[in-house]
Specification:
This protein is of the alpha+beta class. The protein is built from 15 helices and 11 strands. It has 2 domains: about 20-220, Cytochrome Bc1 Complex, Chain A, domain 1, CATH 3.30.830.10; about 245-425, Cytochrome Bc1 Complex, Chain A, domain 1 (2-Layer Sandwich), CATH 3.30.830.10.
Length: about 425
């Protein structure tokens, strides 16, 4: 009989078998990476263009240029694009980040010729129609005004502004009037500068067939496309943090307060980054973390509190976030410092560190088990400037970090004097 009082034995991963993409250069110089994995007849196509918030000349330029690609081309209007994608069971996702913009197409293999034709038109010949842009701008302004009444939104804005300063793209806050400055000509300028074959990378993932690769080569890889073939500039910015440690943003009608604490931290290329990830996970990166166990489970100050490293070019941000009743703001912040002190002065037990390691190793295995998550992982490696050995190094860092290293890293990188405290909510008397 199975004895259910004994938990199953935990097996550690000896190595992380992350499938590498097959890489090739197309005739026009575009880099093509293929991750052929999975049994379902579905393919995902990712087009990456270097150039994002760090390169834009005014707020929202990169975001709206990418967002408007699907709102009309020389061949199709917005309705036709939406209807065709819906008819073929495809999904087109458009997004932008610090230094890159992305167009991601999910398509059934049997309809790839049709859906790739739409993708080609969206990438190569958008027209940025004024009417559709006006509607989208109005909708985004309304959403911005709604968000601006939320304490968590305001607290996050307050934190990044305090850490980076208004001259840094990471701390430059969008205002309502910035939306009105977005015009078709503003978008066309950004598009002409960054959307071209000399600035493009393509990832194919899923059940990738030879026909799919040939179709990609035919549509995107033979002739150069675009108008400006200069390589995007790599811009560097220097943070200008505010000297204030405590920042309060008043919302008199708030039922609870949002607390955001943070400091400038490491980017993912730093040699200590991978082991600091273990420290941050132990501190507040999963449900059994120190912050959750103390502030949620023991003290009951909040339903959830977390800590994470947000990756930005140059310097990332170590951020701690929670929402709590107004009267619990001060004790919640006090307990955060208490947990930092414990990590800096006490050795974590082997049992607790083992639990964190097993959680992270399991999460890593889940993250690389499907073709699409593999594509996400390799895209992260590319845009972050990492090496192909990153996954093996991440595994080794988790397995090898010791309690002594955790304490040393906490003393070095959990600097209480650098931690900004931003609270948005009702002022307590």
């Amino acid at each position: 009989m199975l004895n259910r009082s004994n938990q199953p034995r935990i097996l550690e991963s000896e190595q992380l078998a992350v499938q590498r993409p097959e890489r090739a250069k197309l005739l026009n110089g575009i880099s093509l990476s293929v991750l052929n994995a999975g049994d379902n007849e579905v393919t995902r196509v990712d087009l990456l263009m270097a150039g994002g918030r760090w390169q834009q000349k005014q707020p929202l330029q990169a975001l709206f240029t990418n967002r408007m690609l699907r709102e009309g081309t020389r061949r199709y209007n917005a309705v036709e694009i939406a209807e065709k994608l819906d008819y073929y069971g495809a999904w087109l996702e458009l997004s932008s980040a610090s230094e890159h913009t992305y167009a991601t197409l999910y398509s059934l293999n049997k309809y790839l010729p049709q859906t790739l034709d739409i993708l080609e038109s969206v990438i190569k010949e958008p027209v940025f129609p004024e009417k559709e842009l006006g509607v989208i701008v109005d909708n985004n302004i309304q959403q911005f005004l709604v968000n601006s009444s939320k304490v968590d939104f305001l607290a996050h804005r307050g934190l990044v502004k305090a850490l980076y300063g208004e001259e840094h793209p990471g701390g430059r806050l969008v205002k309502a009037e910035d939306y009105r400055r977005i015009t078709p000509s503003v978008l066309r300028e950004f598009y002409d500068r960054y959307y071209h074959s000399n600035n493009c990378s393509i990832y194919l993932s899923g059940k990738v067939t030879d026909n799919c690769i040939r179709r990609i080569e035919s549509l995107f890889g033979c002739e150069p496309f675009g108008t400006d073939f200069r390589t995007p500039e790599k811009k560097k910015y220097h943070p200008a943090s505010t000297p204030e440690k405590r920042i309060f943003i008043e919302r008199p009608d708030a039922l609870q307060s949002a607390v955001r604490m943070g400091m400038l931290s490491l980017d993912c290329n730093h040699p200590d980054y991978l082991k600091v990830r273990v420290l941050v996970t132990l501190f507040g990166g999963y449900f059994g973390s120190r912050l959750m166990s103390n502030i949620r489970e023991d003290k009951g100050y909040t339903y959830g509190i977390s800590a994470s490293i947000m990756s930005y070019p140059g310097q990332g941000v170590l951020a701690i976030g929670a929402e709590t009743a107004n009267e619990f703001v001060a004790p919640l912040i006090r307990e955060v410092y208490h947990e930092i002190n414990r990590l800096q002065n006490e050795l974590v037990s082997d049992e607790e560190l083992s639990m964190v390691k097993n959680y992270m190793l399991g999460d890593m295995c889940r993250s690389y088990e499907s073709a699409f998550s593999l594509a996400d992982a390799w895209i992260f490696v590319q845009v972050s400037g990492l090496q192909d050995t990153y996954f093996a190094e991440a595994l080794d860092a988790v397995k090898e970090v010791t309690p002594q290293e955790i304490r040393e890293l906490a003393g070095r990188y959990l600097c209480k004097e650098n931690l900004k405290e931003v609270v948005c909510g009702k002022k307590m008397s």
